[in-house]
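Bench log. Compound arrived from synthesis this morning; before running ITC I wanted a structural hypothesis for how nicotinamide-adenine-dinucleotide sits in the protein. Inputs:
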Amino acid sequence: MKRVFYNSLGTEEMYGLIREVMPAGYKLVTLETDEDEERCQKIQNCEVAIVAAKPMTSSIIKAAGALQLVHHQGVGYHDTVDTQSLIDSGIRLALTPAGTTIGVAEHTVLLALAAAKRLAFADSELRQGRWHINSLRPVSLEIHGKTVGYIGFGMIGQAAAERFKVFGTTGLYFDPYAAPDKARDERLGVKPAGFDELLVDSDIISIHTPLTEDTHHLISFDQFEMMKPTAILVNTARGPVVHEQALVMALSSGQILAAGIDVFESEPVSPDNPLCCLENIVMTPHISAGTVDALMGKMRSLFENVERFFRGEPLENEINLTD
Ligand code: NAD
């Protein structure tokens, strides 16, 4: 029996869904608390670890004497896996792009639409007996006819563009590493652009980069200054790509119109976070890929890879840690 450690604290219902798709011969080892002490104890004799949003730190990896494979449940490993510790211990790393892309792309459109119509505020006000039938009109927008600027144009950026296009938008993208593809750009109605040009010309700015040294605080005070006063910022990538204090300033001063945010500089978000006092933001708790469809799709794909690993076959979506 191979033991598979789940590094994030979930619910019994969620663990049940994972067990439903697990092949025979595997045991899922789960947490009862969100404490690293329990992680270090439970991971000890597990051969595989599954990582989601909760980071797998060097102390957890050092405690994992039997660990051979870390499998990320999604793709954002730069900030969630201590790769140097994996290299030091000869542990391999693979990702699960399956199941992530559609959920995040749908959530991106959802946040753009919700921010454009102040959905969270309108809903909360209605529940308290305040009926904003006309007062939201001057600050509500349609997304039809707007320009969406994609910062990072990989799988999720492109899937978001495919969905936005249905609403009658055109697109610009900034991605210094994306291979040019004219046919794709024509199909998606997008054009490559410089970073500053995208900030100045876009009505909706949507972030789809990984969190790296280069993207940390990529959107900060200077970048908000360049945006239109009617711009909407959407972040479903990673919180620290946006300087959160600069975002608070931009939203509260009217430098931009609104924002839809799924990821934050510090998670979970404290109720004292100044973003919680603003009317022109819609926030969700890092749930872009958090659907039952995504979880089942990811787990099927992940366990197919784990089976490949134990059969000694090449892994899909393995990260070459020696690069
Ligand atoms: P991907 O690797 O297919 O695309 C990322 C793109 O970003 C690449 O094309 C890359 O060239 C580009 N990029 C890298 N550095 C850049 C920079 N400095 N400026 C502009 N572009 C840059 O990955 P993906 O599947 O599209 O996922 C994108 C990100 O979404 C992930 O790295 C992760 O952080 C985030 N994500 C969030 C959730 C969530 O639940 N909110 C879920 C999954 C993924």
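What the model suggests: The chain is about 35% helix and 15% strand. The CA atoms of residues 259 and 281 lie 5 Å apart.
ITC booked for Thursday regardless.
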